[in-house]
């Protein structure tokens, strides 16, 4: 007789069959909390945090349990900002956003540029109404700060990135920054032994978006949570993707991930997952660490909702857009451009990011600029050309920089447009449908968000 698996490690197909056979909705299935891990090697935890050093960012390889969107606890590992142990009720498994300046300062900060004004609830306010385009606004150029999610390092071009990594777990682990070497190669600590510390110092790479992760037993450690993002900005061009590239009003970092709870249960019990013998079947999907109603900012926790609005839920006021250069507006200090979305996929599932309301314009992939003309088809069969896209494909370990225009939808006819009295909210979801669910049955409970085209401002004048 086949072994009866507990719900938190059932394959999705088995869960569907179980629900149908029992005549139950998924909400009626019991939530099994994890028992104490079995077969773990007894260890004495490393007791103290590292002594701070100027100009050095400390990361801790920790383990612990995180609550999923359906309240199930799942074992994770991660690069944290403080030392915690597996039984900590609030484990540090994601580092706090941090800015590394060209002057060598390491500044804990959710926003960049550091001195720029913070947009209220993440939404940049416009300069004033656009007299030439009723219902639209002139957008401030080079003005607003952007909020960043956990797991993000923002480094300024010209800085030296100095990382110190303490491995608090019972197996060797590695931190590798992919593509950040002078020749485009990877930079790595090499294996860091249990209860040991390693350093990784390197000159800041060129402006772009880089993934760092643990490649040990790939992709298992990455799936368990050992990953993060390095965003490099030119301090002389803080609102440009890079010098002479697209200018943006503000930017958003979207980190897509998936959680494989069977792998997590096995590793928590002291086993080593063989990804060939146990193929991945992700059970939860996240955007900036949140799923479903959490990533939509509609929880009972106002603090979480506010952070989601600031970090994830794109919003702005309608404007005219010049796609030819995303450059200056009709007068000094204004911008005929949109907002930058950095799409990042350190996970193991291919995503198809679909935005309603506006198409988005892909500028670059994996820090390689796409041409505006004379495009080509790459070896994977993809068209490489800057253009409007309805769905943006995001492969495993890919990054893409895209501009969302925040403009009047092309199908909004005048009677509808001029009758607006409030915000228009549009969904973003992944067209790879499994990513929209949690635990195989909750929809929308996965990788989902929305963006907002702000409504009229009463009394706004040109």
Automatic annotation (TrEMBL):
Residues 148-236 form the Plastocyanin-like domain. InterPro entries: Cu-oxidase-like_N, Cupredoxin. Signal peptide: none annotated. It comes from the Bacteria. This is Plastocyanin-like domain-containing protein. It comes from Arthrobacter parietis. The lineage of its organism: Bacteria, Bacillati, Actinomycetota, Actinomycetes, Micrococcales.
